Amino acid sequence: MAEAYKPVDAFDSMTESTFILRPSSQQQQPQQDKPIPKSKRGRPTRVTASKSNDDGDDSNENISANGGYVQLIQARESADSMHLRQRLFEDMWVPLEQLLVEIEQQVNNVGVTEVCSFIDSSYKRIESREEGQLEAPFAEIAAAVAFSGVNTGDHSKLFQSLQNQLVSRGHHVALLESQYCSSLSNMLKALLDQISVSLGVSDSTGPRGKSSSAVFGVGSSAKTIPYDMSLLKLWWDMSETSKDSRAVIILQDFEGFAPMIVDDFVRIAARYCQEVPIVIVLGLATSYESIHQSLTKASISMLNVERFNLQRSKQCIDAVIRSIFVEGASTLLFGAESYKSLIDQFLMYNFSITGFVNKLKYAVMNFFYAQPLSVLAAMLKHSGGRANGRTTVVECPIRLSEDQVELIRMQKSVQEFLEDKADGPDGRKYVHQALTDDEFFQNTVLPEMVQLLVSYRQCYRLGMEMILAVQGAMPKSLHKPIHMLHYYGISQLFDECVHWKTLSAVMRRMKAPEMEQLLANLCLVVEAAGNIDFAHAIQNGVDIKFLLQEASNLVSDPEAALTEQSESGEALSKRIRTRTDMENRPFLLFDNSSSDQMLRALDKCSGHIEAILRVCLLPYQRAPLQEIFYYKQSLLLDTTFSAQPRAAVQAALGKSHYYINCDCCKSAAEDLDDSNDDDGDGDGEDNVDAEQRVMASMNDTSIAYRLHQECGRMINLYDWYSAFASVVEQGGGRARKQVAQSEIQARFMRAVEEMRFLGFIKSTQRKTDHVMRLTWAM
After folding, report:
1. Is 420 part of a structural domain of the chain?
2. Would 447 be classed as within a structural domain?
3. Domain interval for residue 549
4. How far apart are CA 421 and CA 441, in angstroms?
């Protein structure tokens, strides 16, 4: 490998890469007063610190040696609570990560299986060819074009899964990447190295134990192996391979390969495909047109191409959202803003499942690391599987401190819960005891609120399943994916959501058979939900099972609606079908068989379904303890995972001494600040001038950047160079002798090119001696 570290020269480019050298994990870390981070498989950073500093302050006692967790609430949190938060993170994320891997494999397994089936059935024509049958004028290579999605970061894991399945089926696979195949010889070497391992041969020993010299037909003085396709044919003939085995060559990133290399490889492989069953898999991230643009017509005609779709990112993300956020596989759920930040990065940037999982893990880790009330997650116990199991409320394994109880009381949802309790019988006594007695609050009030939160989640899951059933009875143009339905459910009221209104309007236009089928599907959804807690729905005045049963009875016997209305004193005269009726139920123009009783029954059924959905799909803001169990740090996720390179580069160029540890620039700036303070009027503009001052000790790119900030849209290169030279010739910060004019010109040209590379300027055809400024003050 190239040099990992070299001394930094005074004129080194600021755009060069920076490498962080981590200490070896086996190296013993000395005890220091400052924390020493150590990485361990992506888990929270471990921190080791002394109990007290030199001044005798015990402020470092809250730093834990386990996982980097610290005692929160101004270090007043108990050690048991801190360790519980760490254990909860481990217990929650490990099975959740396993569930995510299983979902991704299950979704992508369909495309992988299709490719494997195609490879299994390839070259059957050659094997079953009868004697005397005419051969084709040229041979065709079986080729599978696998569309793997635009996100190249997930391709390695995807093609590794494909390779594992092919190997398990008895095929011999070579997985090639463009970065290791810069030439045809390198490509053949990488191919044969992998195939040789799969066939059980090595560089020194050929098949069946023969030496390399005997196999290659060369003398003992040969030092290198002739890597070509004839060697593959020789190994294949001498090895004991099954007739169903194939030599599969996977080009993981086809767009990254040089077109000439792939074209030559296809021509060479076509000469051997009848002796060796070669199958080529082309991994595409863009479109099928890239094959026609890269290969010649002669090479394309040698390929028997089949198209497959490997990466199903949207289907995978829908399955993840349904399992984790709708079905409740995760104790921690996301608020509307944080969920939008989580899903937008996937849909609007790179369709990366890995990026989605990393962002989710960061949110879970931040929740247990920085939230002192995250210990309440221990009161939720999942049973029967993470995705399809049940959630029960158990007693908290530790006693909450007075500060933690007070923090819970301060939550707005808790205050609203207690206000509702005050309206009931003995409400004042209940609320007074909840606010004054910590034991009563933890043993009675807190489990009741957690149970109501569990009931809300179960009703929300039921409501989302019912929405999917209602949506399934609608035209496909009205279908929305589950990740959009979940966002509507947590962010908007039922009566305010446009999609819910559209579904309700279409549902009110249904005929009796359609409504009967829809009600049957909804009853199946409720039965499949099992024995769930309907306390949330009952609290809001809705009995879900009763309303569905009543709606089913109304459709099957519409006279019941007439009887009920007659008992309530409503008029029973036949209604005249107005224009509103025609707009709501246009089928009446063509079908007059529906009676007024049936129309009233259908209206009432639609009202029952809407009442159920209105309660089940209440936003999470109505649930108690939602401030704790719903993650809302959307700004933290955006700033952590949505990089802003322009702001970082501008800050680095504007205050370079903070980034490159330039002592001379820092001392010069401090001297200027001291002089301003001595004058007595260095509060405002003088401090700004100190930050904007251009010094000769700065990096050349920083000097050019600060000078270009004083220019307008068009920058005269000669004037820019004159200002740059006047600053460099001062030479106060470098303690050098006079700088040569040619050196100044070279340094200025390099600084300008780096500015162009960073995107601050660009050339213009209007004036050849000018450049155009592209960025302005933030």
Report:
1. no
2. no
3. 457-630
4. 13
